[in-house]
Amino acid sequence: MKILIVDDEASIRDVSARALRADGHDVSTADSGEQGVARLRDQWEIIVTDLTMPGTVNGLELIRRVKETENADVLLMTAFAELDVAIQALKLGAYDFITKPFTPDTLRAAVRRCAAKRELSAELARERALRSELERMQEVKEMFGQFVTPEVVNYVLSLPPTGRKNGSRRKVTVLFSDVRKFTTFAASRPPEEAVETLNEIFCGVVAAVQKEGGILNKFIGDGVLALFGAPLDMPAQEQAAARAALGAMTAVERLASSRQERGLEPLRIGIAINTGEVVAGCLGAKDRTEYSVIGHAVNMAARLNGAAKPGQILLGPDTASALDGFFRCDDLGMMSLAGVAEPVRVWQLDGASEAAG
Fold first, then answer.
1. Do you find a cis peptide bond into 235, omega within 30 degrees of 0?
2. Distance separating alpha carbons of residues 246 and 244, to the nearest angstrom
3. Which of 229, 263, 308, 341 could bridge to 270 as Cys pair (CB 3.0-4.6 Å)?
4. Are residues 112 and 164 in the same domain?
5. Torsion angles phi and psi, residue 183, rounded to 5
């Protein structure tokens, strides 16, 4: 500890300094209260001061000055151990007082108690700072989760920095959904109304996706891209996606009916589900990345979604095959999709199979 001893008696200063240096402390002395005040700028940890000294600065005044300018603890030495003196010293901020005459061991013991208190206070301050930092990090994480799905947040945070840009191949089921004729609707409405309406629809779709364990990957204009099977593996991902699609469609159809009853234009969605292998991971540039999936399965889901009519859920071949026996799926035959070279066999999801239910 860095300690300053303030006393007008040279013998007291010398004995105290030797005793505390023997304990390994960095000790300096001052022979008056005024000199003690002048040395406060040296940033002491403990100040040991006499109560009665000549001049305008006695021990109590020095305590007051210390508490105004320093973070040091003060031990008061006094030959007048009356209760009112002790109370006044403690009220001014003194840590403790020592009654003169005292032995070196008494002084060392008092300083040790004070040093232990300071170390404990420092540890508590570090703990508070750490707790505050953890709380701030949690707030950031929660705020981050408003923009990125919590599952993706946890996935990214679990990766070493060097592995965050490495995509991996995995089987996923992709769900695309978007609002039919929303561009026309938005053009005829104030922007605030268009956004509010779109958010109502998004709430229904996202709630259905999350209920079935899927993750919201991104909003694309008036569309939603959701994933089942990424970033974490998911058993029976096709069935989960099918339940989510049916739940989302039911929610949006109810909203459309409610809007119509209120004299508002009903809006409906189309949905497509497709299963296949993709590359999934944190993709992007050096300073801007996002968790995403890339591959033909994603493109196929987008093309199917473009072909879906309002209120219709279209399925790719692998998804339909995995749903056989669990859901009612109508074979719509071969369909030519924009951007896809060959016609694709497409199914329509109608509901859960009675046998499965």
1. no
2. 5
3. 308
4. no
5. -60, -45
Please indicate, yes or no, whether residues 167 and 75 belong to a single structural domain of this protein. Answer: no
- Give me the CATH number covering residue 203: 3.30.70.1230
The contacts of residue 161 (CB under 8 Å, 6+ apart) are: none
Could you tell me the pLDDT band of residue 165, with boundaries at 50, 70 and 90? low
Q: How many domains does the chain have?
A: 2
Main-chain dihedrals φ then ψ at residue 74, nearest 5 degrees: -120, 130
313/191 same-domain check: yes
Secondary structure of residue 168 in the 3-state scheme: strand
6 vs 12: CA distance, rounded Å: 9
d(CA 25, CA 119): 14
- Strand 26-30: give its sheet, edge to edge: 26-30, 2-6, 46-50, 73-78, 96-99
**Tens digit of each residue's pLDDT (9 = 90 or more) over 252-264:** 999 999 999 999 9
For 7-64, write each residue's pLDDT tens digit: 999 999 999 999 999 999 999 999 998 999 999 888 889 999 988 888 899 888 888 8
Domain that residue 225 falls in: 160-352
| Stretch (H or E) spanning 290 | strand 289-294
The whole-angstrom separation of Cα 218 and Cα 213 is: 16
Residues in the chain: 357
- Pair (79, 204) in one structural domain: no
Calculate the alpha carbon distances from 136 to 27, 129, 150, 154, 160 in Å: 40, 10, 17, 16, 21
